[in-house]
Write a structure and sequence with these properties.
The chain has 171 residues and is of the alpha/beta class. The protein has a single domain, classed as Response regulator (Rossmann fold, 3-Layer(aba) Sandwich). The protein is built from 6 helices and 10 strands, in the order ααββαβββαβββαβαβ. Helix 1 packs antiparallel against helix 2 and helix 2 packs across helix 3. The protein is globular and about 35 Å long.
Length: 171
């Protein structure tokens, strides 16, 4: 429960600090995504050497996730590797794929390319949750919230904890 309170604190902090700078926004979203990942289970993740975070969109977001990887060092007891993708066809072998709001690739192409992969797709575009993103950041009543596409998570073999479901807007 302490971890959940800490997570909620960071979501609140994210809102209070404002979203004026893309670099600042990416850093706080990265921290939130890191915490969210603690409540998701991937199939056979412990047998893999690296935990891979893919970024599609802006170089600023990529740099923020690289800094996060240096700071946190590991996810699920595996060292973090961050990869940048500039087209849907290049996306592969990620545990988390962050689709930046600057991403010019249609989310439907990303979902179709990765449909058989146990990949947690995270975005922050209106409507992306319904289009196949598993976690989609939204703003509602002046607060940062996130949608959880539970059906998409199950299709990808990801298990989401009840604690995370309780915090999310399940779609």
């Amino acid at each position: 429960m302490v971890g959940l309170r800490r997570f909620y604190f960071f979501v609140t902090l994210f809102l209070f600090l404002g979203l004026s700078s893309f670099a600042q926004k990416a850093k706080y979203q990265g921290d939130i995504i890191y915490r969210l990942s603690q409540y998701v289970t991937w199939p056979e993740i412990n047998g893999e050497y690296k935990f891979v975070i893919g970024v599609v969109g802006s170089a600023t977001d990529f740099e923020s996730f690289q800094k996060l990887a240096v700071e946190k060092r590991a996810m699920k007891n595996n060292p973090i590797e961050v990869r940048y993708f500039d087209c849907a066809d290049a996306i592969e072998n990620c545990h988390i794929l962050y689709v930046s709001e600057e991403c010019e690739i249609e989310i439907e192409k990303i979902v179709k390319k990765t449909k058989n992969d146990p990949m947690l797709i995270v975005s922050d575009q209106k409507g992306y949750g319904a289009l196949g993103s598993i976690i989609n950041f939204i703003e509602s009543d002046g607060k940062l919230k996130f949608e959880l596409n539970q059906a998409q998570a199950l299709k990808r073999g990801l298990s989401v904890s009840d604690q995370l479901k309780d915090l999310a807007v399940v779609i």
